Predict the structure.
Amino acid sequence: MTVSDAEPLHLAAALEGAGWHPAAWREPGARPAELLTAGYWADMVAEAERGLLDFVTFSDALSLQSDSQHQPDARTDQVRGRLDAVLTAARIAPLTSHIGLIPAVTVTHTEPFHISKAIATLDWVSSGRAGVAVKVSARQDEFRHFGRRTLPAGPHAVSDLFAEAADYVEVVRRLWDSWEDDAEIRDAATGRFIDRGKLHYIDFAGRWFAVKGPSITPRPPQGQPVVSALGHGDIAYKFIAAGADIGFVTPHDAPSAAAIVAEVAARRDAAGLADQPVRLFADLLVFLDDSAAAATRRAARLDDQAGAPYRSDALVFAGTPAELADLIVAWQSAGLTGFRLRPAAIPHDLTHITRALVPELQRRGAFRQKYASSPQAPTLRARLGLTRPASRYAGLRS
Amino acid sequence: MKQVHLAAHFPGVNNTTVWSDPQAGSHIEFSSFAHFARAAERAKFDFLFLAEGLRLREQNGKIYDLDVVGRPDTFTILAALASVTDRLGLAGTINSTFNEPYEVARQFATLDHLSAGRAAWNVVTSWDAFTGENFRRGGYLPQEARYERARAFLATVLELLDAWHGDEIIADTGGGRFITRADAGKFAHTDSHFDITGQFDVPRSPQGHPVIFQAGDSDEGREFAAAAADAIFSRHSALEAGQAFYADVKGRLAKYGRSPGQLKILPAATFVLAPTDEQARELAHEVRLQQVSGATAIAFLEQLWNRDLSAYDPDGPLPEIDPEPGENTTARGRASVRMYRDPVATARGWRDRAQAGNLSIRELIIEVTGRQSFVGSPATVAASINDFVQADASDGFILVPHITPGGLDEFADTVVPLLQERGVYRTEYHGTTLRDHLGLEADT
């Protein structure tokens, strides 16, 4: 099979502060004093859009950045402080017109009702380019920021947090469907603004919470904005297979990519969703330079500045854009939909993605030459080959 | 001469908003919000204001369908509006019952960063189990506890915002220090509602605190505002009631060590403009007919009577029966029904008024609900607004147009220049933050 017959390749960028490497903020070209300004994020997303990327993700958490996965640290030599990701995405939405916008949201401590309308509104303000990257919190410090309960302990603690997250996603999705698309009728003759038979109570009652509905926000342009999650193992794969449209996974070679693809597909089948395959994106952390030696040297220099080698859940790639293109094309055949690239340093590695990697892939016929735009810019779902589902309540008079 | 402050309320989900007019556009598409915000900024308004309700209203057990239904998420739409405006303040109504301080603090701090200092928070409370059914807390409060919870919630949010002082980030690339202190953002707060500890994760924003609004009219609400708010969104748009409210609330400030200028009083106001006063009066009557259809009149009556009155003819007389006493089970999710403290007496008053004036149900409801605050030619309206402010009945107004999204355009183009000619209204923004526009000191 030639490249052009394959499923189209999808590329995304994961935006995180000054880049994913903890010393990235000290690099030439970095804008560490501007990380809390709209202008910085607008420029980075505009760069990603110039590179024709499918979407960007915005990292977030309900705690300060830390070297520790479980508690704050005592470091003063790394970026600390951040902005809410949903609001950052919304701030950028009117300034862009094609690229998908996927903010991270921690579900463990937030309200599904609020998040459902927030992502629906992001979809309205972006004309159908919204998604959400669902995160589970298992940090004691985040539990203490809310003070409502303690981090569960015991053998089922993590699976319970994921089960709660699955309920949360179910509620968010039902709320998106709780208004049928044609519920607003503006019928002057009868004085009715809506046909209330097309608004639906979701009546969700689960182990952790109950939510009545309907949403206060009408059904968004995509119907169902794109739900995504990062996963590293069984529990997360099951969660992704049962409720997500996109999974971010971290294979370290093509065979492990194929294995993850098979495992998630099997779980998707088991969930009865085989006809709607999950789009799996491999996460790669990238250092890109004109020579492999330069990329390796830069990675080493950043590690020196940070005081320790950078460790990542994702494969750390240091090399040329052409070498990365080789890897991408090779791994894609393992059944991946695409790749989410985590730039080690921003803007350096982001601009090497958009201005070197993308042209390289285009020369090989492996990536789009422009965004589709007729008759109008497609939604994020459409770009990813996901259909626009009818509301699950359509036709049920309430 | 006092300077007039003006702000704009995006048309709400109530019968003030006329959706049946041919000029009425979408209440949910971003283009409507952008149009409205740009008009407000063109008119050099202080801010745009969004209301909120967290459960769709119901009447007689069904979702209320006669008014505009549905709105966007407040924080999200305000963040998006920050990208199509430069100076306009962005004020959101956010509930202190169905949220947690850590999350609300990071949302307001973020909005203030992303708008370069234009965020404002209208702190509201609710306690009803009806709204609580949409939330995992499911919780609701005894009515008497709601202000206590609101005060605790606001104090906690401000404490989180103050956990960063504003001088921590140095981003010294050469020396390798990003922040001066590893414990930046550290907090510990315990009261009877919240017991939280840790490190807040959004560094200090341009305004420090969002501008704080309060909308309640009760004695407790006024006291809450005097203690903690920068502006009050009041209901008193009649001169004498406005002056009484103004004197009362400003008089409460001294005991909190605050001066009268530190709390702006901004009543909601509706308006109808036409080239002449006579034409405006005619138009105002037409708008009232649009706002109060026969079905809407019956619905209003049911909200007071607390009964199903669908069998009554809106063009006929008022019911002879009295309102159903006790908890209002007819209308749910509607704050206005609580204003009827003695429904039987109010109903008698309405009946007497209808008999005296030979009014039908619809005509009576048009009389007793929401007559426009300002009706006239641009010159008349500009003069009335200025008189009101100079007479210390308010510091300005939050204007509530009845058409989305263009309902502000005519006001911006005709009334604002007249206020500017009088020298009582800015011709350019002088500062960049909402605190600057309102003449409030930075909250340091």
